[in-house]
Specification:
about 55% helix; alpha+beta; 3 helices
């Protein structure tokens, strides 16, 4: 009887131990499952943080590429995010760390918005500056073309004025003359009778020419092409040179003016043949030519 009671007690104890063991197993399994769930949730949370950081980094990469010049603030922000990414990927997931990075992601997003707004504003300013620069360049090109046109017009006008202000001859004549004993000069066509050449010309009126002293050069060429007289020499700014027989100076007042001068015979008599007389202004512009023959 006592043995039966003892066996029953053992059975009761064994049953209780079994219940406790089963409870422990169930509790342990439950804890394990909770831990797995927590680990999975933390891993997913970390992956979300990584995804957010990757997204931020990509946006900064794009902004840096689209920027015409390197923006140090964008580069620094991107490098900072890259460091956070490395830290999150290698970290042991826990609620405290993830909460800290979650908060940091929020801060980084706000920084991104501010930086990208600043970059957009800068790009807008640069675009406006580029448009203004292009517009200014176009206007400068137009002004340059206009100035060049003015230079051409002024040059043409100056040339026209210079040409218009030049003196010209309206009449030109050459006569071989003999001086009689009473001083009277008479025309002749014979070389042995000729004492002088009388060169006369009329300067046309010109209202735009400068009034003042003017000098003309007379060049007389004998039948051999030699210059009669003392053969003076005159040069102009272009390097041209003329040997002339005599220069004549007069005062011009913008009105028609008759000028006459004489070329005396050389030491010997004038030769027979054809003579040429040229008249030049002070710039050595040929104003008129005349030829005649002595018998």
């Amino acid at each position: 009887m006592t043995e039966t009671k003892s066996n029953n007690g053992l059975k009761v104890i064994a049953g209780l131990l079994g219940v406790v063991l089963l409870g422990t197993i169930i509790y342990t399994v439950s804890l394990y499952q909770d831990k797995q769930k927590t680990t999975t949730a933390l891993t997913q949370e970390r992956d979300l943080v990584v995804e957010d950081l990757n997204s931020l980094k990509s946006e900064y990469d794009k902004a840096i590429l689209e920027s015409n010049a390197t923006n140090e603030e964008l580069v620094d922000a991107r490098d900072k995010i890259a460091k956070y990414l490395d830290s999150v990927r290698t970290m042991k997931a826990d609620i405290t760390s993830l909460s800290k990075y979650r908060r940091q992601v929020s801060v980084l997003k706000k920084e991104r918005e501010q930086l990208l707004k600043a970059v957009d504003s800068l790009k807008t300013s640069n675009s406006l500056l580029a448009m203004q620069r292009d517009s200014t360049f176009v206007e400068l090109e137009k002004q340059t073309v206009f100035n060049d046109s003015l230079v051409v017009q002024n040059t043409q006008l100056a040339n026209a004025v210079e040409r218009g202000s030049a003196l010209n001859l309206s009449k030109f004549s050459v006569d071989a003359v003999k001086e009689r004993k009473n001083g009277k000069l008479v025309s002749t066509s014979r070389a042995r009778n000729t004492d002088k050449f009388k060169v006369c010309f009329t300067i046309a009126d010109n209202v735009i020419a400068d009034a003042g002293d003017r000098e003309f050069f007379m060049e007389v060429l004998d039948p051999q092409g030699n210059v009669l007289g003392e053969s003076f020499s005159a040069s102009n700014e272009d390097g041209g040179t003329v040997n002339y027989s005599k220069g004549t100076t007069f005062y011009y007042e913008n009105k028609a003016l008759d000028v006459c001068d004489y070329i005396s015979k050389p030491a010997s008599d004038f030769q027979k043949g054809n003579y040429m007389v040229n008249v030049y202004d002070d710039k050595l512009k040929l104003l008129g030519s005349s030829s005649f023959a002595l018998k």
